[in-house]
Amino acid sequence: MEFEIVVAGRAEEAIINNLARFYMYDMAEHAGWPFPDDGAFEAGDMFAPYWGRTRRNDARPWPAQWRGFPFLCKLGGHPAGFALVVQKAPSLFDMGEFYTARQHRRHGIGRKFATAMFDRFPGRWEVREMLTNVAAQAFWRRIIGDYTDGRFTDAQERFEEYRGNEFIVQRFDSSRR
């Protein structure tokens, strides 16, 4: 099946927002989000900064120097996931959001997609996971460990730019490959 990574423009933004319903459902367990009254998670303008727009009613807007890069993963021409990368400084990148649809997990698609992002943006990287998301922690430790031959750090830290929440974070340099 053909694997494709598409730089997400306005047309792909709607697709990513549709996929985000499933992403948000998966994340709700770890973030403590209740179902909305109508039972449907909606991204709304949550991802707007990745397309250079501000969110309505955003009490914590992105710092001015941050830049977003949205990508859609396709398999056989169909949406299979997304990656939303944040450039925080000239050579510092953050995997802001990353999602692979359940039917494509454990088939190497997430690994291929993630490493393509690391290759596309050479430099220092931060990848964060929620404290209770043990599956995501195992995924990223495995992917990053293989990608860097074990040359990465792994810690638990509080991030003020993410509402002061604590995360598990891996850091590495993709330009050293």
Radius of gyration: 16 Å
Low-confidence parts: none
Distance between the termini: 28 Å
Query: What level of helicity do the residues show?
Result: 25-40%
Reading side by side through the largest sheet, how are the strands ordered?
A: 1-2-3-4-5-7-6
DSSP summary, beta strand count: 7
Largest sheet at a glance?
7 strands, mixed
Structural class: alpha+beta
Mean pLDDT: 88
| Number of contiguous helices | 3
Q: How much of the polypeptide forms β-strand, as a percent range?
A: 25-35%
Indicate the overall shape: globular
- What's the SSE pattern? EHEEEHEHEE
Explain the overall architecture.
The model has no long low-confidence stretch (mean pLDDT 88). The chain is α+β, with helices and mostly antiparallel strands. The chain has a 7-stranded mixed sheet, with helices on both faces. The longest helix is centred in the first third of the chain and has 22 residues, at 10-31. It is built from 3 helices and 7 strands; from the N terminus they run βαβββαβαββ. The protein is globular and about 45 Å long.
